[in-house]
Amino acid sequence: MYRGAIIGLGNIGLYGHLPAYFHPDIRKEVKIIAGCDLSRENLERFQKLIPAAHLFTDAEKLFQYEKLDFVDICTPPVSHFNLIKKAALKKINILSEKPVTLELETLLQIKKLVLKNKLVFLPGHQYRYSPVWQKIISIIESGCIGRPYLIQFFVYRREANKGNEYWDPAWRSEIEISGGGIIVDHGSHLFYLASSILGKPEFVTAITNRLSHFKYSVEDTASINIQHEKGAAHLLLTWAAHDRKMEFRILGTDGEISAMENKITVIGIEGKEIVKLDKGLSGDSKHSDWYIPLFREFIDRLDKKNLSIDGMEEAITTTMLISASYKSAEIKKTVAIIG
Ligand SMILES: NC(=O)c1ccc[n+]([C@@H]2O[C@H](COP(=O)([O-])OP(=O)(O)OC[C@H]3O[C@@H](n4cnc5c(N)ncnc54)[C@H](O)[C@@H]3O)[C@@H](O)[C@H]2O)c1
């Protein structure tokens, strides 16, 4: 059994990750033995779910007193770097929620520590395991739309998701805690999805706005164009909408795929087909079932001592795109991605 601890027992820690750890496929190999959170109420909620777990309000003490095989970091973005660094220095394998860090320099420090200490590392990039995305990938791999060359993502939300009520529900709209707005929150998933199809990003042009949430200290809307090595991506992300939905379109040399939540339409060399899945990409934003394959992958890597840094490279691409988007919006110019 691998002994793990969760740091950050808020919405995603308790209601996204924990149910996935309880899945029969995962719980036979992993035991969550400890939890850490700044809020007593959240520790109590965690204890109700795992009565035998040890509780900490300070991650330093968790690392000092518990013998851990891995740690799962589910705190808001700006705290990730320090927590990951502490875990890596203690030679503890790491799962980290997205975005892993907000600056390339800090992520490169983490990469160094992960390599030096021979650790398994994976980011919380679980959208790649969603049934919609898995279906899209199988359609592309069937060859029916030819070579993909343009991806568009449209994310519409009414506001930033609230953080849990026992800490700081508004953190996503507070720059000091979130590190950014909808680019950090949603862009992080879409950046790695687009890059997985179109390859390395090369140039970014972005515009950010605060269109309706004037109390936010972050952008509520962003329009981002990315030139990748194999094509172009366009993202429109907004918390200023009047509905909650996500749409996207992938154009290729021989056809196209469009998806509106759970409905996928394919126009390919063999004509038009409509596929309907049970759930779309928005759901309740916890996506607990998508974490099961991510955790399975993490366990398999621990079993095989597979120290591949593909997850780290994906996190690096994501972080580079986040900072390049903000840079471009700030200087009002196209920014090159160097690396
Ligand atoms: N992968 C996804 O689809 C997905 C979905 C939602 C959230 N997330 C990510 O998960 C993270 C948490 O988001 P959330 O929605 O659960 O937020 P939340 O506000 O619900 O929970 C955050 C928790 O972290 C705790 N915390 C903050 N700093 C801490 C520290 N230094 N040590 C210990 N505990 C600390 C708070 O007390 C709070 O309980 C963010 O990075 C977010 O981007 C990812």
Outline of the structure:
The chain has 339 residues and is α/β, with parallel strands linked by helices. It is 38% helix and 26% strand.
Number of domains: 2
Radius of gyration: 20 Å
In N-to-C order, the SSE pattern is EHHEHEHEHEHEHEHHEEEEEEEHHE
What small ligands are held by the chains? nicotinamide-adenine-dinucleotide
- CATH homologous superfamily classification of the largest domain: Dihydrodipicolinate Reductase, domain 2
Estimate what percentage of residues fall within beta strands.
25-35%
What is the end-to-end distance?
38 Å
Q: Largest sheet, if any?
A: 9 strands, mixed
CATH architecture of the largest domain: 2-Layer Sandwich
Q: Quaternary status of these chains?
A: single chain
Low-pLDDT stretches are none
Tell me about this structure.
The protein has 339 residues and is an alpha/beta fold. It folds into 2 domains: 2-124 and 289-307, Rossmann fold (3-Layer(aba) Sandwich); 127-283 and 318-336, Dihydrodipicolinate Reductase, domain 2. Helices cover 38% and strands 26% of the residues. It is built from 11 helices and 15 strands. It has helices at residues 11-21, 24-27, 40-49, 59-65, 77-89, 104-116, 131-142, 175-178, 182-198, 288-304, 310-331, and strands at 2-7, 30-36, 54-56, 70-73, 93-96, 121-123, 148-156, 201-209, 221-228, 231-238, 245-252, 256-260, 263-268, 271-276, 335-336. The strands form 2 sheets. A 9-stranded mixed beta sheet has the order 14-13-12-11-7-10-9-8-15. A 6-stranded parallel beta sheet has the order 3-2-1-4-5-6, with helices on both faces. β9 (221-228) and β10 (231-238) form a beta hairpin. The model has no long low-confidence stretch (mean pLDDT 96). It binds nicotinamide-adenine-dinucleotide. Nicotinamide-adenine-dinucleotide (NAD) binds next to α1 and α5.
